[in-house]
Amino acid sequence: GCCPLSPTGAQTTQLLVQPPWRPAVLWDRVTLTCQGSGTARATSWYKDGKCWWQKGPERFTVTKSGTYMCDRRGSGHSSHIHVLNARLVLQLPVRALLEGDTVTLRCRG
């Protein structure tokens, strides 16, 4: 099984999504990358809150909808990302937004 999740306090692990839009949708061929200062060969992936892939790769292309998160021993666990299998979706860029920012939304189907 997977190792227990690293403590949140040490979190420097990031979960990157390509293409950089949220929510992510399966038909976009979504690639997730786990980045952090921890050991690359100790990347564990979680899907829907359960250990899914122990000692997995840093990067993979998603083939099933769900909520994903990664953990790298030494740098903690990432935030999570939802990957949907939706026919129609309103997306916004994956970046921090502040009040007053101009934002481009995408309606796709």
UniProtKB/TrEMBL annotation:
Highest taxon in the source lineage: Eukaryota
InterPro entries: Ig-like_dom, Ig-like_dom_sf, Ig-like_fold, Ig_Fc_receptor
Domain Ig-like positions: 7-70
Gene Ontology MF terms: transmembrane signaling receptor activity
Keyword Kinase: no
Xref: SUPFAM superfamilies: Immunoglobulin (SSF48726)
Assigned keywords, A-Z: Disulfide bond, Signal
GO cellular component: external side of plasma membrane
Biological processes annotated in GO: cell surface receptor signaling pathway; immune response
Entry keyword annotation includes Acetylation: no
Name of the molecule in the record: FCRL5 protein
Natural source organism: Aegithalos caudatus
